[in-house]
Amino acid sequence: MGKIIFYEDRNFGGRSYECSSDSADLHSHLSRCNSLRVQNGNWMLYEHPNYRGHQYYLRMGEYPEYQQWTGYNDSIRSCRMIPEYRGTFRIRLHERSDFGGQMMDFTDDCPNVYDRFHFNDIHSCNVLDGHWIFYEEPNYKGRQYYLRSGEYRKYTDWGAMSPRVGSFRRMGYF
């Protein structure tokens, strides 16, 4: 079971809120989030309610200020616990929306999409097995997007504002 503690002030000060499951709206518990502790599990944090806006992947550890989780500001309004996953991993990427254009299947992490796919724009994908995270830049940097099993017909379906994917990795196995 996961557990995360949000704090309004830096260095674990101010009001706090303890969470052990998905929460679509944290605003009633905290007005801002400047630090946090992940005591158990892996979590995805979202800048806006209902799992929207910038996303931040966090593992167990202490984060005394929001810049340490590459936060753009002190706004965390929803969170999801990423379940452990011990099965196989498989994702199918497409260069066009609605599963069109060139397609490639992956079963492992990819630190540089361009090197393997020969372009950075992924317009649709199908997560066949496991949980994945897309990064806007190569080497697991930049904006992050959490993808669970299912079909994503266009990049906005996973919360992105552009189709750029620089790297991706499997989630929940480490």
UniProtKB/TrEMBL annotation:
A Gene Ontology biological process term: lens development in camera-type eye
UniProt KW Translocase keyword: no
InterPro entries: Beta/Gamma-Crystallin, Beta/gamma_crystallin, G_crystallin-like
SUPFAM superfamilies (alphabetical): gamma-Crystallin-like (SSF49695)
The keyword Cell division is annotated on this UniProt entry: no
All copies of domain Beta/gamma crystallin 'Greek key', residue ranges: 2-40, 41-83, 130-172
Domain of life: Eukaryota
Alphabetic keyword roster: Eye lens protein, Repeat
GO MF annotations in UniProt: structural constituent of eye lens
Pfam family, one: Crystall
Function: Crystallins are the dominant structural components of the vertebrate eye lens.
Subunit structure: Monomer.
Family: Belongs to the beta/gamma-crystallin family.
Protein name: Beta/gamma crystallin 'Greek key' domain-containing protein
Species of the source: Pleurodeles waltl (Iberian ribbed newt)
The organism's taxonomic lineage, starting at the top: Eukaryota, Metazoa, Chordata, Craniata, Vertebrata
